[in-house]
Amino acid sequence: MPKGNTDFLFVLFETQRMLRLYADKLAVRHGITRAQWAVLAKLERTEGLKQSELAEMMEMQPITLTRLIDRLCNNDLIERREDPKDRRVNRLYLRPAARPMLARLAKLRAEITQTALNHLNADEAAALVGQLESIKNNVRDALQAASDAKTKEPRYG
C-alpha cells in the first residue's frame, strides 16, 4: 500500500467535480440535464423500476427524483405505469422518444471519455479503469465490513 499520497482523495474528488461540470455543459446541447441523463441511463439498464428503487439507486431524495421524473414525463421521454400488484406504486418505463436521445447521449458519453483520457494510450486507459475498479472494490469491501461490524456491536441504554 502506498504511503504518503495525501493528494489522492483531493485529485479524485476534483476530477469527479470537473467531469460533472463538463458533462453538465455538454448535456445542455441536447436539452437535458446531467441528472435527467442519469435517470434515463438507469432506466435504459433496468426498465420497470419503482420510483423509490430508483431514488435509492441514485442516492437522491424522493421529492427531487419526482421533479426530475415529472420533467422527463412532460418531455415524453419516460412514463409512469401503475404496478399491477400494488396500485400505490408507479413503475418507470422509457417512451419511444427516449431511444434516439439515449443514442445521442451515448455519443456524448464517448466524447467526454475521449476528452478525459486524451493523453493516455489504450493500454494506459485500460490500466487506469482497472485500478479505479480495484479502488472501488476496496471501498465497497470496507463499507460492507463497517456495516457488518455495526450490526454486531452491543447496544446499551
Short description:
This protein is mainly alpha-helical and about 160 residues long. It contains 6 helices and 3 strands, in the order ααβααββαα.
Give helix % range. 55-70%
- In whole angstroms, the N-to-C terminal distance is 40 Å
Q: Average pLDDT, to the nearest integer?
A: 91
Question: Taking Cα atoms only, what radius of gyration do you get, to the nearest Å?
Answer: 20 Å
Name of the level-1 CATH class of the largest domain: Mainly Alpha
* DSSP, total strands: 3
CATH topology annotation of the largest domain: Arc Repressor Mutant, subunit A
Could you characterize the architecture of this molecule?
The chain has helices spanning 8-27, 34-45, 51-57, 62-74, 98-116, 122-152, and strands at 49-50, 78-82, 90-94. The chain has 157 residues and is mainly alpha-helical. A hairpin with a 7-residue loop joins strand 2 and strand 3 (90-94). The longest helix has 31 residues, at 122-152. The protein starts with 7 loop residues before the first helix and ends in a 5-residue tail after the last helix. The model has no long low-confidence stretch (mean pLDDT 91).
Sum up the structure in keywords.
Arc Repressor Mutant, subunit A, 157 residues, 8% strand, 3-stranded antiparallel beta sheet, 65% helix, mainly alpha, globular, 2 domains, single chain
What is the topological layout?
Blueprint: H1 8-27, H2 34-45, E1 49-50, H3 51-57, H4 62-74, E2 78-82, E3 90-94, H5 98-116, H6 122-152
Antiparallel strand pairs: 1-3, 2-3
